[in-house]
Amino acid sequence: MSTFESLGLSQSITEAVSAIGFESPTAIQEQAIPRLLSGEEDFVGLAQTGTGKTAAFGLPLLHRTDVALPFVQSLVLAPTRELCLQICRELESFSKNQTKLKILPVYGGADIRRQIKALEQGVQVLVATPGRLRDLMRRGKVDYTHLQQVVLDEADEMLNMGFKEEIDEILEAVPEQRRTWLFSATMPPDVRRISQDYMDNPFELSVGTQNSGNVDISHQYVVLRPAERYEALRRFLDMEPDLFGLVFCRTRRETAEVAEQLTRDGYKADAIHGDLNQAQRDRVMQGFRDRRLRILVATDVAARGIDVDNITHVFHFNIPDDLNFYTHRSGRTGRAGNKGISLVLAHPKDRHLLRKLEKVSKITFEAVEIPSGPAIFEQRLMRFFDKISEASPNPELMDYLPEIAAKFEGLSREELLLRVASATMPKKMQAYAKSKPIGQKPRADKAFLKPNESRRVFVNIGQMDINGKGELLAYLCEKGGINGADVGKIDLQKKHAFVQVEVQAAASLINKLDGQTYDGRTLRVNDGGPQPGQSNKKRRSFPKRKKGKKKFAK
Ligand code: AMP
Questions:
Q1: What does the angle CA 368 – CA 506 – CA 467 come to, to the nearest 5 degrees?
Q2: Are residues 334 and 462 in the same domain?
Q3: Domains in the chain: how many in total?
Q4: Is residue 328 part of a domain?
Q5: Is 297 in the same domain as 356?
Q6: Are strands 74-77 and 149-152 parallel, antiparallel or unpaired?
Q7: What is the CATH number of the domain that holds 230?
């Protein structure tokens, strides 16, 4: 394994990096840094957030900066204010031994005059959102004479957000002989076009497979009714007291509602969405970063640029409208070698979307169970007693012990423990002990992502025997031990019926009903063969009869 020193970085930078606690370079750093340090070529890095890409471009960029020259030498473009600030924070920590180095973030929504003033005082590294930078350029406030490298970070996000024109204008204005380093999680045609139009035969590096989910993320889903979503979310939060997570919703309203409900239920949660002003957003983000908040509920747009370490779970309160957002959402966890869970609360109708996501993002979803109430209760109870058994006795309490002990005279150990737990366990937790399961069971759900396989079943009950399809369905469910949801098309004819039934349920139906009596006669329930017009292998394996030839005539 290589070290930061062996990649060719200066001593002041490697010292700063080791002071932060980075022990060895990540895959993208190992491969990109030596190229970007000395090479003159353009560079495309296909990497998601969490791979260490900021340091992959940030360290060579700082290494190449001449601190004695008070002009813009590096420009970093990023989609959001949050990401700009995040990049600046990282660059500042890498360059803490390079005194005299000036890094300036410029972004919309802040006082432009102040940014102009700061620019005039001399800056070597400018980190900007495309809109604000174009504004500053149009006012003639940015001097690119000494520009050496332009970095486009999260290029796909910038284009998703509609910064195409701004990026074109900026890349046309910068000197032709600068280097361009582009980083993107995905490579849609718009990003490809930028690399073709503005980059010179770039070296391409892909960390992991393009579009593939990070291997440190486990992709999971549960299937439930929309009305069960909030309760399911709560159960996951209650089952894992150390969970530190993001919850994605589709609309601002839903985002605010979920956060409010969580707060009402006693969770440290807040929301981030487009209705907040900058100061409010900053306050919420700081709270999340400082871990004063445990859950942040966000819309896709507002969450862009959120870059917080050690997020254990990303919940998709619903599947994103744009499936590309899934990668960006889930990429907020499983960062820097940590494991993370990305969990979709899926509606039964979402099956085809999950399947599509598996294909597009080259990931595999695993069906999981929503924690049961009794399981949460038991887990909490055990944690509570673990904590008690591990607590070190406070000597100052010893004096009170005789009086306390007197209160419990004659009580058995078990009774005492029972009373302690009952008095201290929150009501919410006690309610779990008796609560019912929610969502679909993963066992029945195993085939959820596969197209439903069904079988056609013959039943010798027809219109002459029963009053319509509804009655037949009710009878089959009641006596055949199956569920209405397992049954598809019913073809009710005069003396018999064909019923399309999910494979396992069909077996149960045949087992339970064939040979029983119905209305005084024997029931025949068996394989109904393929649907008319559909072939099956068994059939095809019989020798085909030629039409018109009476094979058995003689
Ligand atoms: P990024 O992909 O640049 O957003 O980085 C993701 C996280 O990984 C950030 O919190 C970085 O501080 C951290 N990180 C980057 N490089 C390393 C490294 N070599 N060792 C440990 N952590 C790192």
A1: 120
A2: no
A3: 4
A4: yes
A5: yes
A6: parallel
A7: 3.40.50.300
Cβ contacts of 499 within 8 Å, gap of 6 or more:
456, 457, 459, 472, 476, 487, 488, 489, 490, 491, 528
Backbone angles phi, psi at 367, to 5 degrees: -80, 130
CA-nearest residue for atom 1, ligand 1, is 52
Q: Which atom of ligand 1 is nearest to the CA of 336?
A: 8
437 lies in a domain? no
pLDDT at 129 over 70: yes
Which CA distances in Å does 148 have to 73, 75, 335? 5, 8, 30
- Per residue in 499-513, pLDDT (tens digit) is 988 877 888 889 889
Residue 441 CA, ligand 1 centroid: distance in Å: 38
The Å distance, Cα 384 to ligand 1 centre, comes to 35
Domain that holds residue 379: 373-432
Distance 16 CA to ligand 1 centre (A): 14
CA distance to 113, 137, 170, 213, 441, per residue, from 132 (Å): 12, 9, 11, 32, 50
pTM over 0.85: no
145 and 16 in a common domain: yes
Task: Say if 202 falls within a structural domain.
Answer: yes
- Condensed to tens digits (0 to 9), the pLDDT of residues 207-239 reads 754 344 566 888 999 999 999 999 999 999 999
The ligand 1 atom nearest the CA atom of 4: 19
- Residues 93-104 pLDDT 10s: 999 988 889 999
For a ligand 1 pocket test, name from 54, 151, 338 the mutation site with the most ligand atoms within 8 angstroms of its C-beta: 54
Please report, as a single letter, which amino acid is at residue 383. Answer: R
